[in-house]
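Researcher: Structure prediction, please.
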Amino acid sequence: MSFDANLLYVDGDQPDARVYVNGKDTGVTLANADTLGPMMKDGSVTVSAVYHSPDAGRLESNEVVLQNDDSIWLEFPEVEKKEEEPAYAEGSEPPTQEEAPAVEELPVEEAAVSFTESDVAQFTENYLHYSVEAMNVGSFDMVKHFHDPMGKTYKESSEYIDYIVEKGITEDLVYTTVHDVQNNGDSYHVVVEDAYNIFYNDGTATYKEFLSTFKVTEKNGELFIHELLELEELRSEDIH
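Model: Predicted structure follows.
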């Protein structure tokens, strides 16, 4: 059995929307997607996107079944902005600041985590995959949307990519395996084993395996890498 597996150009009318493949969040926005793949184009793969509108909440684009497509366009339904109704009777003057009743400000509670453990595991694996690509091309922009801007990894990832580029190091991701996803109510702790071939600018190379624990948070219906809680090197050996 043969498959037509090629790159796919993806675009749409909401740059901040997240791209989904076969119903799974890739962690990549339309603005950063550009090309995906290689993708099987035999009808077994669907591509769509999800956008969280401030006026309408979660919106889903059209879903495209890949059939020899070189490029696709993902479009969202139009949303009418909510108009605030005046708090005074039509034809009357609005109350002055002194006349207006005081409004008690209530604390805003963060929404509970709404993703499944499988979603979080897939998101973390996608992050590790794109992190290697970002390091190899020297572009933090490729992965900054994975990071919580208020988290520790946002700055750490940017600085590490700069370090990798400066040292002339490249990496190949050999495998990733998520061992555990712990739901803590307002975040997840994800334990993942990952292995890399690391190539240095002097021609040497090393194979390394790690066991890492990430803190993953949710904001506005999206997942973000917040912090690398633990990092243990399991194995290291020269391969050149």
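Model: Residues 5-74 form one domain.
Researcher: Thanks, that helps.
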